[in-house]
Automatic annotation (TrEMBL):
Taxonomic source organism: Absicoccus porci
Gene3D superfamilies: Rhodanese-like domain (3.40.250.10)
Signal peptide (residue range): none
Highest taxon, organism lineage: Bacteria
Protein name according to UniProt: Rhodanese-like domain-containing protein
All copies of domain Rhodanese, residue ranges: 19-95
PROSITE patterns for this protein: RHODANESE_3 (PS50206)
InterPro entries reported in the protein's UniProt record: GlpE_sulfurtransferase, Rhodanese-like_dom, Rhodanese-like_dom_sf
Length: 95
């Protein structure tokens, strides 16, 4: 039997982010997508820049539009030894 890591629901993920000291909310969508709409307190590092991004020693809560790019970004960050979790897509975010 194979097990997959469960991603957090974006709304639960934001709640956890807000209660986690020294954490970062990371939006991996394009800069254009980020400028048009993003979750407050998020920083933007597009997925195609993740490989050169120098992460801080903090917990990362990662999102994109639907959850696909954030899944890839989390895998890349974890390969660097970063504590990162995929919280899915902004399309499911409820204020």
């Amino acid at each position: 039997m194979f097990f997959q890591r469960k991603k957090l629901d974006i709304n639960a993920g934001i709640k956890t982010f807000r209660s986690t000291p020294n954490s970062i909310l990371l939006d991996v969508r394009t800069r254009k997508e980020f400028v048009s709409n993003h979750i407050p307190d998020a920083i933007n590092v597009p997925l195609d820049e993740i490989d050169t991004y120098q992460p801080e020693n903090k917990k990362y809560f990662v999102y994109c539009q639907s959850g696909r790019r954030s899944m890839i970004a989390v895998q890349q960050l974890q390969q660097k030894g970063v504590d990162a979790v995929n919280i899915g897509g902004i399309q499911d975010y409820v204020l």
